[in-house]
Structure formats: C-alpha cells, structure tokens
Amino acid sequence: MKLEKWHLSITLVCLLFGTLFTSNLKTQLQDFNPMAARNEGLVNIIKTQEQKNHELETEITGIRKSIEEYQLATAAQTELEPLQEELERLRFLSGLTKVSGPGIVITLNDQDRARTATAEEANLYIIHYTSILYIVNDLRAAGAEAISVNNTRIVSTSDIRCAGNIILVNTHRLAPPYEIRAIGNPQLMEEVVRSGEFTTLELSKFPVTLQVQDDVVIPAYKGSYTFNYATPIESKEGVD
Questions:
Q1: Are residues 83 and 16 part of one domain?
Q2: Which of 63, 115, 116, 169 is deepest in the core (most CB within 10 A)?
Q3: Residues 122-142: pLDDT tens digits?
Q4: Is the pTM of this model over 0.70?
Q5: Residues 83 and 128 placed together within one structural domain of the fold
Q6: Quick one: 132 and 35 in the same domain?
Q7: Last residue of a domain, one of 62, 93, 124
Q8: Which residues contact 170 (CB under 8 A, 6 or more apart)?
C-alpha cells in the first residue's frame, strides 16, 4: 500500500495528541493527593461542628440570662417576704381576713309578746341596740380577738346604733335573732358576759342563749377604713 503524505500528517497529529493527553493525565494524577482530599473533608466537618457549637453557645447564653433573671426575681421576692408577712399580720389585726378558732356564740331574740303588744309596750319586749353594744364591749373586755354580729365583722371603727326601730352595725340593717360570735378564751368570755347585760336579759325572760364552740368562724370586714381629718405623723429618731 502506498503511503500518502496525509497519512504521515495524521500519524504525527495522533502521536502528538497522545503525548499531550498522557502528559496532562500524569500531571493531574500527580496533583491529586488522597490525604489532602481527606483533610479537606475533615475541615468541612469541623466548620460545620463549629457552627453548631456557636449556636449551642448562643442558646446556653440565653438560658443563663433567663436563670439570672429568675434568681434576681426570686431574691426580690425573698427580700419582700418579711414585708408580706407583716402586711398579712396587719390585715389580720385589722379584721380584713376571715378567721376561725375556739369561742362562744350568743343569740339574742325578742320576746313573743312583742308581736301583740302596742307600740309603747313593744319596747319592753324587744332587743335594743344598747344590749348588743354592751355585750360586744364585754367581749372586748374579755380579750375577744374577733367579733361579729349577724355575720358582720366588728372592727375598731364599727358603730352599733339604732335608726328608729332598726338596729344598724357598720350601716348594715339587722333583724332578730341577733347572733354574736366571738373568738378567744371561751371560759373567760363566758364568765365576763354572764356577769353583765346577758344575764340581765336572761332574768327578764328574753330568749337568749350562749354556747361554747371549738370552731367559731368569723368573716372578714368588708367595709373600708376612712379618715377625713387624721393624718399620720412621721416619726423622728428620739421623738415619740
């Protein structure tokens, strides 16, 4: 077979292409480093982990801040506990809380004859506000810690009075029978009460009773303390 010039040209081109391809492949193989590729993968993993750690640190910082705020709030509450206890004590002494304890229950009622008596005679057979007032004062003298009349709490500013034929306690209208409850030393209160107005009513044939009970419940005072003229004086050291 006769070789033409173009055959030689093609052969030379193929040899040149093969040489260049082989040289380039060797270069790429030389540049590829398995250890470097492995290190690059580890670097990516580390970067990802660092990002997650940063996110966790941010979350932990937020949690710690919340804990600190809670601790500050708790500390503030702890500091206020004595004031809260003192406030509750003052509320108790002012009659603003419902209480229970041993005591006595006194019941006063009009005589049956008051229903048929004339207006003038009826005054002889009905309970007057003065009788309630005297008994309440006797209970106070006996050291009663809490008193109520017909479920109305008696406090330092309470008034017991009448408006015509109506008896008022703390502006509340009362109707017979009148139930007076008191918490304190039952024996002492009974002794003092029986030496005063109660016995007078009993001897006058009024339907009155006195019972000692282990658990007397007295409601809280529902009114308000109003002072129109009195104002507190700031105390100064060494001055009463």
A1: yes
A2: 169
A3: 888 999 999 999 999 999 999
A4: no
A5: no
A6: no
A7: 93
A8: 152, 153, 154, 158, 159, 221, 223
- Statement to judge: residues 89 and 134 lie in one domain: no
Structure tokens at 157: 């500013």
Same-domain check for residues 87 and 162: no
Candidates 159, 171, 152; CA nearest to 222 is: 152
Task: Provide, rounded to the nearest whole percent, the portion of the chain with pLDDT above 90.
Answer: 38
Burial class (CB in 10 A: 0-12, 13-18, 19+), 99: middle
3-state secondary structure of 7: helix
CA end-to-end span of the chain, whole Å? 141
Chain position carrying tokens 């007076």: 180
Strand 172-174: give its sheet, edge to edge. 160-163, 166-169, 172-174
The total number of residues shown for the chain amounts to 240
Provide the residue range defining the domain that includes 89.
11-93
On whether both 74 and 140 belong to a single domain, the answer is: no
